[in-house]
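Following up on my earlier message about guanosine-5'-triphosphate. Here are the inputs again, as you asked, copied directly from the submission form:
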Amino acid sequence: MQENFKSGFVAIVGRPNCGKSTLLNKLLKQDIALVSHKANATRKKMNIIISFKTNKNEESQIIFVDTPGLHHQEKLLNQFMLKEALKAISDCDLCVFMASIHDDLKYYEEFLDFSNKPHILILSKIDTASKEKVLQQIANYQKYDHKFLSLIPISSSKSINLESFLTEVSKHLPYSPPFFDLEILTDESLKQIYKEIIRESVFNNLSDEIPYESDVKIEKFIENKHLDQVFGKIFVEKESQKSMVIGKNARTIKRIGKQAREKMEKMSEKKVFLHLQVFVQKSWSKEKANLKKFGYDFED
Ligand SMILES: Nc1nc2c(ncn2[C@@H]2O[C@H](COP(=O)(O)OP(=O)(O)OP(=O)(O)O)[C@@H](O)[C@H]2O)c(=O)[nH]1
Ligand SMILES: [Mg+2]
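Thanks, got it. Here's what our run produced:
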């Protein structure tokens, strides 16, 4: 191991839907974090571990912490999500604030109001804006150049500036031996990743409030070398939502299951048997004790 190895925790925060989880999947070259075109997809912190070597041959292990989007909503689950993001900011060595290129400057100003963590500012989704708009936004944010370590416009979809971003992150990490084995991509269990894949499929196949009022539990998980057996339960708040998740002739639940299974198989490079059932659990997201049963513990 090199003596000048760097390693540290880097929280990636920003408004819902700005592209945090997409960027981390892209850097990892694996779809581990849940991504959705709907906002508020990520509910809990997740570590994504990247090994990186700069062109000066400096090595680092960057432990990115994916977080729920910074937002304000009365609902208890949303308060839990905000708490997760704030905890990640306070625990990390370095923070990355991500704003979509289309976002108003005020969201960054709000972040500056409550956090004085050293941070890199990234402007995401620049593939969706004109060159003029990108330059204009960079100029707008420059007014705070005494606050951020650097400002990097990026596109995860088009792989623009991702290498420069990692080089910059690495530059600001402390010297330390790696925290995790170098082959590890995340410290999440396969069972937890499978759960998020099912939740992603629910998010991307259902509309209205259902994704926000549903969650997934894996009741039984049998892991084998060539075949994983996954028995999952989708929980919703109301009977009417249960019928929507199942769909006419069970078409919707079959689609959710098929998409999830295909993604699990791609990720694990194994065959997956996935069995899904839908249950109603009234107020699962509206009481602290119930949320805890779904892994959202306010005391943690
Ligand atoms: N065009 C374009 N779309 C992007 C890019 N990055 C992310 N997206 C899309 O933006 C949407 C939101 O992406 P996510 O990665 O789930 O965003 P997030 O910030 O993790 O969202 P929350 O978990 O809800 O806070 C998805 O539909 C992505 O495909 C990008 O660089 N370019
Ligand atoms: Mg996310």
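One observation from looking it over: The first helix runs from residue 20 to 28. Hope that helps, and feel free to reply on this thread.
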